[in-house]
Amino acid sequence: MKHLLLFIAVLGLSCKQKKKYHDVEKQNEIVQQDTLVNSVLHWQGKLNKEYANPETSPLPDRYRKDFESLDFFKPDVNYIVIADLERTPEAIPFMMPTTTGRKSKEVVYGVLTFVLQGKKHQLEVYQNRKLMLEEGYRDYLFLPFTDESNGEETYAGGRYIDLRIPEGNKMQIDFNKAYNPYCVYNKKYSCPIVPSVNNLNVKVLAGVKSFQSDNK
Fold it and tell me: What is the largest CA-CA distance in the chain?
């Protein structure tokens, strides 16, 4: 009888430990998601401060005087993906058209391959040879893209994401940090036009939404 009670006690302890193990795994996942969401919220707050500051804002005075916040989609970790980076060191620099007719000299740094909404996608990521010579931009990469939300929930011309060169061949793309070109807010800015190769055939309902002046 004592042996039976001891067996039951050990079995119960084992079950509790197993349950506790799963609870820990789930808790770790929640903590990780909270960390990602907090990163997005921090980025949103930083961007709002930039747009509110007359020294750094692309907004004309008529929009900035009453500015409180850009219109963001709610942070969604499903729009954070890990992409495979295939570098293209032999790529030839080309002139990327802009909204003002000026052209920006860019080079395809690499091709990003990832899965979003159950579909496999590829995007080219670019490096500006002139910009990379400036302090703080040596490892800067430029990711412009269009998607099926353009012209409805988001700006018709597509959006941009800032990235940094990784050490390895994996790169995180957080579409929650997609922002509008400055020319959306002020026509005095010259903004690169998204290459047609960088179109996503899904709706990316993440990042900065369309601005009230988009169609003005």
Answer: 89
